[in-house]
Each structure stands twice: as C-alpha cells, then as structure tokens.
Amino acid sequence: MIELCSSIQGHPDAGGNWQEKVNSNLASLDWKQTKHEPCLYRREVDNTPVQLMCRQVDDMLLAVKTGEEYHEFNKSIGSLLNMEPKNKLATSFNGIEIEQAEGYIAIRVDKYISKVISNHGWEKETYSKKAKSLLNNTLAREILDSEKDATAKMPEAIVLEKEMDFPYRMLLGELIFAFVVVRLDIGYSMSLLSRFTEYPAKVHYLCLKSVARYLRDTKDRPIVYWRKTPLVGLPKGTFISYKKPENAN
Hints:
By secondary structure, this protein is of the alpha+beta class.
C-alpha cells in the first residue's frame, strides 16, 4: 500500500478534497462563505464587506476596489495554492459575459442563449411578428387552464416529445440557467412551466419554446450595475447614451 500525498484527478474523493483544501486556505485569509450561496465569499474589515469573490472549482472572480488589492490577493493565495492569476479585467465567467465600462458593469448571457438556440436548430426560424412578450395572452390562459398530461415515461408522452422535437426537461433547465444569472424577466414563466416537468402537455411545449424565442429576440438585454463614481481609464461603453436612474447605486 502506498500513501498518496495529493488527490488523483478523476478519483471520487478528489472533488471533496479540493473543496476542503480551498475553503480552509481561503478561511485562513479571512474569506467567509455566504450562507445562501457557498460559492460566494466575502472578506470583511470592521464587519463591513470590502471584497467579494465568486468561485467555480478553481476559477475565482474577484470584486476589489484597487489593483493593489488584487495583486495582494494573488500573492497570498499563490503562497497556499498552485494557481496562476490572469492580470486583466474579467470579460466572462462561467457562461456570463461581462462588460466593464467607465460608468457601469453590465452582465449578459447572449452567447449562451445563442448556443442554446443553435443546438435546437431554431436560429433561422422566422415568425410573422417579433416576440414582444414572453407568452401571449392566449398561451398564458391555456397554461392556467390546462391539466396534467401523461407522465414523461408513458408512450403518449414519448410520442409528444418526438412530435415537438425537443426534450421538455432539457430546454427548461437551459432556460432556467439564463433566468438565474441574468434574465430575471422570465422568472414567472419558468416558475409556471416548471410545474409540468413530469407531465407536460402540448401547450406547455409550445409555451416553453415561446420563451426560448423571446430570449433569442432579446438576447442582448443585460443587467447593468451603475458605478457610484466613474472609473476613469475604461471605455465609455455600450450604454453611454442611457441615462443613469436617479436611485441607482
């Protein structure tokens, strides 16, 4: 028997070992995991959060005020973990596009949406009218009035899935990701359609595809975080012509 000094990639325990190691090392640097999201960390000074970090396995996205803070973190974490920093502003992270401009930070998922639409072969589908809302009144009413259909494993459900030409559960999961990270405007539709995951009827398939079509036509819509003070040296950005709301922070 040979004792291993570190985890072997692909071993069932490797993920848990890495999780334990990185969390203990971050804790030694005064980083704390948030209770609602274990992958989100904060570092406090006098009980005030001064730095934030989002971690996905070994990718870390930092929110700090100065370049000195960023380099100090890289120096500290580099002494504990074998990690190489990327000394540049983030432009993407875990499927999210990030635009950093002088007056704001904008996040969007247009590339992700385009990939989902392309994977289903819907990028060239045309309609007589552009989607202005998630669900038209007729479809929304049909959902509210509809009943449960055959369960997903029954022959009738399998025939329906082949007719609609996409798995209901798959598309639902793909759209939920867009909702959770950026597209909050589809939240109600996702909640409503999620009720029929196990037994979707044809109307539910049509409504889910309608939401996908809406995202395709509005894929460039972002969430914009306005800076309290402009960060001189960055580009003016795409939304420079937009007026910052008076109550924006």
